[in-house]
Design brief:
Elements (H helix, E strand, L loop, with lengths): L7 E4 L5 H12 L3 E4 L4 H13 L3 E4 L7 H15 L5 E4 L21 H25 L2 E8 L11 H21 L4 E8 L8 H7 L10 H12 L10 E4 L7
Parallel strand pairs: 1-2, 1-4, 2-3, 4-5, 5-6, 6-7
Amino acid sequence: MFDLSGHAALVTGAGQNAGAGIARALAARGAAVAVNDLVAERAEAVAKEITAVGGTALAVPFDVTDRDAVREAVARARDGLGRSVDIMVHNAGIAADFGQGHFRTLEPSRWRAPIEINLFGAMNCVSAVVDDMCETGWGRIVQISSGAARTGSDQGLSLYGAGKSGVEGFMRHLSQELAPSGVTVNTLALGLQTNAAGAATEVFAQKIPTRRLGRPEDVGAAVVYLASPEASWLTGQILNLNGGSVTS
């Protein structure tokens, strides 16, 4: 069950935190993994970690907002892994300028980056892999989102939330278009993760029913299921992975 042997995955933003957990988990189930990160050294470190334990991985650093760079990297991944990408996990979502702050205090020059990386980044990556998926009749697209897409807060996350809300809408429609071709499209909305840990987040953690923050391993396990052959009848869904902090 959940055997991904013979499949190739591209995981964006996989040089650290949840993205690295996703890459490790997919590789552990047999997928060959193209490890992306904006910072080449981070992508290379995770790829080496995977290969050191017997997995197959290739570092493919690029900026998801650069369409040409995405397409070139996908071609490199196809050549390096020996097969086309049929599992695409768009995890990159934190721009260099996160755009955090109350909206009325933010200059318009800061509006674009969170939208570009989340929405246009996803579009660039989907565009680069979807034709191969449809032609082979099998594919998995997994979008990593956040509870900030659907729950408002006063923590200065309006731009981030807008980007995540936009990409969730894109994925809903994409799932309907691609379902007849054997390609599923699902979104995993994360709650507070360990990479955000600090004094304030530890206080928030105690309000989560499970009494802890999310870990990279939690995210990786959920993505393995969504990417698996066993999840062929699950598409167009947004699944909350948040320790029970928000129920649906």
